Every structure is written in structure tokens, then in C-alpha cells.
């Protein structure tokens, strides 16, 4: 069998491959190798500037060449590293050997080649590479995809701010709201969740085999290796990594920040699961129609159907993403003694977890773009639900001391089909100020929305 999207084991690389083209270069094996090369090059250049007599500062040409290895890293380079790994059976060592092989035609670099991967354990390279992968995935794919959903929903919240709709608490008719306000509720929650994702600091350590700079100090005992490592980690790219320094670790970075990040993404996903189910219900009620696409089929046997598949796909993929994210956040901060390898294979699935989230955000965006408000259905629902005005009527009755206000409205409305005339007859019998009586008589289910429109526009 030849490798292609049709034979891919994962749907992320098969059916949905095109939708994840932006994430794949960042979170794939090639993306991982790319960041490893970046870390090794940054460490190597920094060592040349550290003031060691054994390693003089690199020439401008050598620096440009090294940074070019990072900038121009491609699939052919990744495949070359994989070929070396067939012999080494060690992926980080294969990266080191590949970099050294690129020095062959440059005597200046060849003479300094033993400073590639100097005093580093594999995890010094891996943990920094993972942080860089997450940095780029968050900046270039995850947040922009989530932002697109938030922007579209905010537009809808504002556009439909004044469109009254019936609420349903416990599935029963309840005080009206507006379409825009219900969407605004989700927008505000998502905005908070989005900021939590964006604000997680991405940590990295470069402190050797068990976190104590043992090998570093064996080579240069008087050198401040901790300050040096901090500088490499925190200096902006391309000469540094642009991450946050982790001063305390065992062989691996503790991964607590990863758990924080993945939990934050899972929280945003959960909010969108809530919305996907709600909008699915509103489509079922007829509050929204879906724009038709030429040639699209909703059911193989029922020609009339236009299924809410985008929201269903989003819900399913959000669930898959959260299952992986939660395992990542629970497992990664746990390591036996100073190191075990259980995190290594799990970390290779970060892209899968983020891939399902990205796919879900894409489906959500497609679904939102298809929605068309069905004002007639919304208005008809309101017109058949005059019982919701029992709340404002009994509240005004209480204001003016009418005894048994709640009980009187309960007797008239509970479990009954209530007409406007029934409520108006009751209102006219009330001993309340005439102006208040007239205000209640003018009220309709569509006008009883409180501050909903204002709140929607404010989101």
C-alpha cells in the first residue's frame, strides 16, 4: 500500500489533511526535528560568544550559515536525519550528527564541531523543542482559529442583539431573552478561555542530565552556567529561543506549564461543546435555517434534510481533543525519579490533540457561516408562550402589596395553554396604579427581554 491520505490511519492525515496543513509543519516529526536543529544552533552560537578561549566567536558568515540551517530546514533535511537515526537508533544524536555533517565544507565550523550538543542531555534539546512547537502552534494556528470563531460569534451577537427569543430552562418555556444575548454569553466565556490559553508561559530548561549543570561545571567550574542557560532560553529569536527559563528540574522539564496550557485549551473546547449542542437544538427548533450548497446531500434516503453536520463534527472532534488533552495534562507532570520515558511517546501526540481542536474550530466556523436566522419561527414560538408573562405580572403585584401574587398567577398559568386575553383579564382586575396596569397590558413575550439587547451589544 502506498502512503496517501486515503490510506492514512489517522483522519487528521487522511480525510481532514487539507484542513490541518498549517499545523502539520509545526507539530509533526519534521516540525519536531526543525526545532531541535534550532535549539542546537542557538546553543552552539551562544557558546561561541561565552568567552571561552577554546571556542572563539564565530564569524558573521558562519553565523548566517548556521541560522540558515534553521530558516531553510525542509523535508529533505528531516529525511536525512531519519536516515542517520537508522544507525544511531537515537533521534537527538541523529540531529547532532546531521548538523556536524553540514560543517564538512566549512573549516571554521568543522574545527568547533565538538561544541555541538556540548554538555547537553537529550532532554535539554527536546523540552525546548516542544516549547517552541507549542509556541508556534499557539501563535500561528490555535489562537487564530479560535479567534475566527469568536469574531464571527461576536458579529452575530451584535447583529441579533434585539431579536427576542423564548428561553427554555429545564426544557420548559421561560423568561424571554434575545438571540444576540445567548450568543454573547458564549462569546464572553470564550474570550476569557482564549486569554488563558494565550497567557500560559512556555517554560524550558537547559541544565543537564539531572538539572544541576554537572557536566557544564566539570568543563568550566568558574563559569555561571545558570545565567548562560537563562540567556539562551529567554533571548528573543533567532539568537535565543524566546521562552521562559525553568530553573528547577530533574532530567526533564516538569511539564506543569504544558498541563496548564492543555487544560486551558480543554476549557475553551468544553465551552464550544456547550454551544455546539445549543445551536444544534436551535436548528432543530427552526430558529436557524442553514444555507444550502449546490449538490450537497443531507440524507441518503430523505431528500428534505439539511443536517447540522458541522456542529456535530465540531462536537465530536472537541471531545476527541479533550480526551487527549486531559491525558496529556494528567500524565506529563508525573515522572519516576529523575527520568522515565513514558512522557516521550505521549508528547508525540500533542499535535493530534491540537489537531482535533483545530479541526473542530474549522467545522464550527463553517457551521456558523451557514446559519440564517428564521425570525418567523422565533416570533411564532414567542406568540404561543404568553405564560412567560406570569413572572413580570406577579412581580409587579408584589411591589404593590397584592397578597398571594405568585399563587394567583400559578393558578392561571401552570400547566395550561395561556392566551393574551387570560392575562389581560387578570391585569385589569388588579388594584395597582393605572399606569402600571397599562404598562403590563402593553407587554408581550417579545418585549419582555430585560437588558438582553444591551448586554449583547456590550460583549
UniProtKB/TrEMBL annotation:
<comment type="function">
    <text>Catalyzes two reactions in de novo purine nucleotide biosynthesis. Catalyzes the breakdown of 5-aminoimidazole- (N-succinylocarboxamide) ribotide (SAICAR or 2-[5-amino-1-(5-phospho-beta-D-ribosyl)imidazole-4-carboxamido]succinate) to 5-aminoimidazole-4-carboxamide ribotide (AICAR or 5-amino-1-(5-phospho-beta-D-ribosyl)imidazole-4-carboxamide) and fumarate, and of adenylosuccinate (ADS or N(6)-(1,2-dicarboxyethyl)-AMP) to adenosine monophosphate (AMP) and fumarate.</text>
</comment>
<dbReference type="InterPro" id="IPR013539">
    <property type="entry name" value="PurB_C"/>
</dbReference>
<keyword id="KW-0456">Lyase</keyword>
<dbReference type="Pfam" id="PF08328">
    <property type="entry name" value="ASL_C"/>
</dbReference>
<comment type="pathway">
    <text>Purine metabolism; IMP biosynthesis via de novo pathway; 5-amino-1-(5-phospho-D-ribosyl)imidazole-4-carboxamide from 5-amino-1-(5-phospho-D-ribosyl)imidazole-4-carboxylate: step 2/2.</text>
</comment>
<dbReference type="GO" id="GO:0044208">
    <property type="term" value="P:'de novo' AMP biosynthetic process"/>
</dbReference>
<dbReference type="GO" id="GO:0006189">
    <property type="term" value="P:'de novo' IMP biosynthetic process"/>
</dbReference>
<dbReference type="GO" id="GO:0004018">
    <property type="term" value="F:N6-(1,2-dicarboxyethyl)AMP AMP-lyase (fumarate-forming) activity"/>
</dbReference>
<dbReference type="GO" id="GO:0070626">
    <property type="term" value="F:(S)-2-(5-amino-1-(5-phospho-D-ribosyl)imidazole-4-carboxamido) succinate lyase (fumarate-forming) activity"/>
</dbReference>
<dbReference type="InterPro" id="IPR022761">
    <property type="entry name" value="Fumarate_lyase_N"/>
</dbReference>
<dbReference type="InterPro" id="IPR024083">
    <property type="entry name" value="Fumarase/histidase_N"/>
</dbReference>
<protein>
    <recommendedName>
        <fullName>Adenylosuccinate lyase</fullName>
        <ecNumber>4.3.2.2</ecNumber>
    </recommendedName>
</protein>
<keyword id="KW-0658">Purine biosynthesis</keyword>
<dbReference type="InterPro" id="IPR008948">
    <property type="entry name" value="L-Aspartase-like"/>
</dbReference>
<comment type="pathway">
    <text>Purine metabolism; AMP biosynthesis via de novo pathway; AMP from IMP: step 2/2.</text>
</comment>
<dbReference type="InterPro" id="IPR004769">
    <property type="entry name" value="Pur_lyase"/>
</dbReference>
<dbReference type="InterPro" id="IPR000362">
    <property type="entry name" value="Fumarate_lyase_fam"/>
</dbReference>
<comment type="similarity">
    <text>Belongs to the lyase 1 family. Adenylosuccinate lyase subfamily.</text>
</comment>
<dbReference type="InterPro" id="IPR047136">
    <property type="entry name" value="PurB_bact"/>
</dbReference>
<feature type="domain" description="Adenylosuccinate lyase PurB C-terminal">
    <location>
        <begin position="335"/>
        <end position="449"/>
    </location>
</feature>
<feature type="domain" description="Fumarate lyase N-terminal">
    <location>
        <begin position="15"/>
        <end position="316"/>
    </location>
</feature>
<dbReference type="GO" id="GO:0005829">
    <property type="term" value="C:cytosol"/>
</dbReference>
<dbReference type="Pfam" id="PF00206">
    <property type="entry name" value="Lyase_1"/>
</dbReference>
<dbReference type="InterPro" id="IPR020557">
    <property type="entry name" value="Fumarate_lyase_CS"/>
</dbReference>
Amino acid at each position: 500500500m502506498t502512503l496517501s491520505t486515503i490510506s492514512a490511519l489517522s483522519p487528521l492525515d487522511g480525510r481532514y489533511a487539507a484542513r490541518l496543513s498549517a499545523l502539520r509543519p509545526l507539530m509533526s516529526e519534521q516540525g519536531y526535528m526543525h526545532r531541535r536543529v534550532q535549539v542546537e544552533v542557538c546553543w552552539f552560537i551562544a557558546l561561541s560568544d561565552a568567552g571561552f578561549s577554546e571556542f572563539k566567536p564565530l564569524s558573521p558568515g558562519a553565523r548566517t550559515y548556521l541560522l540558515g540551517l534553521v530558516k531553510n530546514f525542509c523535508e529533505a533535511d528531516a529525511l536525512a536525519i531519519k536516515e542517520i537515526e537508522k544507525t544511531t537508533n537515537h533521534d537527538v544524536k541523529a540531529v547532532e550528527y546531521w548538523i556536524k555533517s553540514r560543517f564538512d565544507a566549512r573549516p571554521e565550523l568543522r574545527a568547533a564541531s565538538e561544541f555541538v550538543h556540548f554538555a547537553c542531555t537529550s532532554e535539554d534539546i527536546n523540552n525546548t523543542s516542544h516549547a517552541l512547537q507549542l509556541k508556534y502552534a499557539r501563535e500561528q494556528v490555535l489562537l487564530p482559529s479560535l479567534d475566527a470563531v469568536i469574531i464571527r460569534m461576536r458579529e452575530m451577537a451584535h447583529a441579533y442583539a434585539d431579536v427576542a427569543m423564548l428561553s427554555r430552562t429545564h426544557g420548559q418555556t421561560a423568561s424571554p431573552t434575545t438571540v444576540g444575548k445567548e450568543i454573547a454569553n458564549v462569546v464572553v466565556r470564550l474570550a476569557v478561555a482564549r486569554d488563558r490559553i494565550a497567557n500560559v508561559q512556555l517554560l524550558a530548561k537547559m541544565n543537564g542530565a539531572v538539572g544541576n549543570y554537572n557536566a557544564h561545571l566539570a568543563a568550566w567550574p568558574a563559569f555561571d552556567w545558570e545565567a548562560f542557560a537563562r540567556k539562551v532560553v529567554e533571548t528573543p529569536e533567532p539568537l535565543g529561543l524566546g521562552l521562559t527559563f525553568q530553573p528547577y528540574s530533574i532530567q526533564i522539564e516538569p511539564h506543569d506549564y504544558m498541563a496548564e496550557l492543555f487544560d486551558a485549551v480543554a476549557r475553551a473546547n468544553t465551552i464550544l461543546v456547550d454551544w455546539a449542542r445549543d445551536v444544534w437544538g436551535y436548528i432543530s427548533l427552526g430558529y436557524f435555517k442553514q444555507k444550502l450548497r449546490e449538490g450537497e446531500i443531507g440524507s441518503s434516503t430523505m431528500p428534505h434534510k439539511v443536517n447540522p453536520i458541522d456542529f456535530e463534527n465540531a462536537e465530536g472532534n472537541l471531545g476527541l481533543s479533550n480526551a487527549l488533552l486531559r491525558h496529556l495534562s494528567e500524565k506529563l507532570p508525573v515522572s519516576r525519579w529523575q527520568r522515565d520515558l513514558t512522557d516521550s511517546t505521549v508528547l508525540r501526540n500533542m499535535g493530534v490533540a491540537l489537531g482535533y481542536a483545530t479541526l473542530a474550530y474549522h467545522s464550527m466556523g463553517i457551521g456558523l457561516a451557514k446559519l440564517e436566522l428564521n425570525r418567523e419561527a422565533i416570533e411564532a414560538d414567542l406568540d404561543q408562550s404568553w405564560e412567560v408573562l406570569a413572572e413580570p405580572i406577579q412581580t409587579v403585584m408584589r411591589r404593590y402589596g397584592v397578597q398571594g401574587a405568585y399563587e394567583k398567577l400559578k393558578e392561571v398559568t401552570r400547566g395550561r395553554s395561556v392566551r393574551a386575553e387570560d392575562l389581560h383579564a387578570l391585569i385589569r382586575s388588579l388594584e395597582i396604579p393605572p399606569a402600571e396596569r397599562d404598562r403590563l397590558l402593553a407587554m408581550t413575550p417579545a418585549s419582555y427581554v430585560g437588558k438582553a439587547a444591551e448586554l449583547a451589544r456590550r460583549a
